[in-house]
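Anyone up for a design puzzle?
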């Protein structure tokens, strides 16, 4: 009968669950000061790891344009053209300039408020925005009562091979937004 199946299930659950207690994590509710320190450390770690490319190629003259290192992806020049056209107001219909792409719009907006050259902005934007991945990961861990695990996860995510390669300094492409923004959305859903 249904009652006997339920009772049997209940007895199996009682037998299995106590033996799995070692898999349970203690709740780790840190205060906001420690949370803030974890966020800063994770962000600075992720950011500093993205400057390896700059250190390696800073002295190579062939990699410079307008006294700045050049970006290292073809798509970056496409999106930079859109930002440049937005700033110059020189977009023409059917010229295929990506003036409506989020990365071009963000770059144009940032270039108006950050006092650096356009070349410097598009070179370092992936590092600063890509490193933001650590913030939602630490915050998700904190929300789930596992701040230290969120911190460790953020350190790993900040330098995860494929994501790191596609958000390092000079890799000006949409990858800096396509993981960070959804992770923030997931955090706000969990919150």
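Challenge accepted. My sequence:
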């Amino acid at each position: 009968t249904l009652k006997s199946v339920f009772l049997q299930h209940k007895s199996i659950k009682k037998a299995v669950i106590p033996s799995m207690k070692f898999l349970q994590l203690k709740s780790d509710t840190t205060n906001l000061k420690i949370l803030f320190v974890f966020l800063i450390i994770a962000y600075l770690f992720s950011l500093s790891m993205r400057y390896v490319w700059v250190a390696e190629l800073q002295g190579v003259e062939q990699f410079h344009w307008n006294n700045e290192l050049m970006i290292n992806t073809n798509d970056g020049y496409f999106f930079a053209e859109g930002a440049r056209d937005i700033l110059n107001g020189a977009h023409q219909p059917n010229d295929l300039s990506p003036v409506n792409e989020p990365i071009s719009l963000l770059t144009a907006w940032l270039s108006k408020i950050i006092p650096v050259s356009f070349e410097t902005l598009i070179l370092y934007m992936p590092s600063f925005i890509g490193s933001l991945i650590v913030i939602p990961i630490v915050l998700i861990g904190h929300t789930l009562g596992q701040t230290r695990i969120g911190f460790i996860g953020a350190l790993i995510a900040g330098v995860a091979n494929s994501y790191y390669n596609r958000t390092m300094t000079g890799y000006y492409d949409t990858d800096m937004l396509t993981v960070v923004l959804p992770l923030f959305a997931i955090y706000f859903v969990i919150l």
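A detail worth pointing out: The longest strand covers residues 64-65.
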